[in-house]
């Protein structure tokens, strides 16, 4: 959000068959700011375009394209990269895509 993005959900996101993503009603419009508390934010719904697996670390400099499946749709998948450029790279990916 600090880079100009909107809040869909914090901690849990519902994914619908048309790949629309929304926050569950219990946490809609809320986000945790560690050390500050639960903050309010204007929530939006969005289209699922990319999955980022934060549990796996990318070891390849230029990794092959990966996908995962939700509701029978193949969605691009990337792993976490150690470095300050990572969130900016994700934002650029979402804006312009990837050259394969």
Determine the strand fraction and express it as a percent band.
35-45%
Low-confidence stretches: none
Walk across the major sheet and give the strand order.
1-2-5
Spatial shape: globular
State the end-to-end CA separation: 28 Å
| Total count of helical runs of at least 4 residues | 1
Mean pLDDT over the residues = 95
Radius of gyration, Cα only, in angstroms?
15 Å
Number of strands: 8
Question: What percent of residues adopt helix (DSSP H or I)?
Answer: 10-25%
Question: What kind of sheet is the major sheet?
Answer: 3 strands, antiparallel
The string of secondary-structure elements, in order, is: EEEEEEEEH
Structural class: mainly beta
Number of domains: 2
Would you give an account of this structure?
With 100 residues, the chain is mainly beta. It folds into two domains: 1-48, no CATH class; 49-100, no CATH class. It is built from one helix and eight strands; from the N terminus they run E-E-E-E-E-E-E-E-H. It has one helix at residues 86-96, and strands at residues 14-15, 20-22, 30-33, 37-40, 46-47, 51-57, 66-70, 73-80. The protein has a three-stranded antiparallel sheet with strand order 1-2-5, with no helix packed on it. Strands 6-8-7 form a three-stranded mixed sheet, with no helix packed on it. A two-stranded antiparallel sheet has the order 3-4. The two termini are 28 Å apart. The model has no long low-confidence stretch (mean pLDDT 95).
